Amino acid sequence: ARLQASRPVAWIHPPKCGSTFGNVLMYLPGMCPFLPPGYLLDGHQHEMSSVGHKTDLWCPGSFSYEGRTNFGDHYGVGGVYKSSVEGHGFIMLRQPEQRIMSAWFHDQKSWPFDYFGRPAKNLLEYAHIVSGCAVK
Questions:
Q1: Which end of the chain has the least Cβ crowding within 10 Å, N or C?
Q2: C-alpha distances in angstroms, 80 versus 14, 22, 87, 93?
Q3: Model's pTM, two decimal places?
């Protein structure tokens, strides 16, 4: 009953914080009655963007996309908190230092290349610039 009251679920997915957590949400009882048998997200970005629109078919009424592009995107909640997330939000976080190191090794995810015009010089510079992005 509590899960059904949480529908539609608003999955808040910070970068490098468990893309495969989507499997947990999709396999909760009654969430995705039309999910193909044995389907699992493997966490690759191309897969996350392509599965985003299929969740409407596989999981009718189970997920909220207000202010988002698709299931599992990395958008924040901003102005849709009251209308879409409050009482419906699910999030998985990791130790901030571990998230930053994982992003560094994943081609400097979230580094503002357009602003700096170059990659970060080292992990320390990278960490100083991107720290806090999962909480801002």
A1: N
A2: 16, 21, 12, 20
A3: 0.74
Q: How many other C-beta atoms can be found within 10 angstroms of the C-beta atom of residue 10?
A: 23
131 CA to centre of own chain: 17
Q: Which residues contact 104 (CB under 8 A, 6 or more apart)?
A: 120, 123, 126, 127
DSSP letters for 7-46: PSBEEE--TTS-TTHHHHHHTSTTT-TTPPTT------HH
H-helix segments, the chain: 2-6, 21-26, 45-51, 55-58, 96-105, 113-116, 123-130
Residue corresponding to tokens 């963007």 = 49
Question: Per-residue pLDDT tens for 12-32?
Answer: 888 887 788 888 999 999 999
Residue listed under structure tokens 């170059």: 118
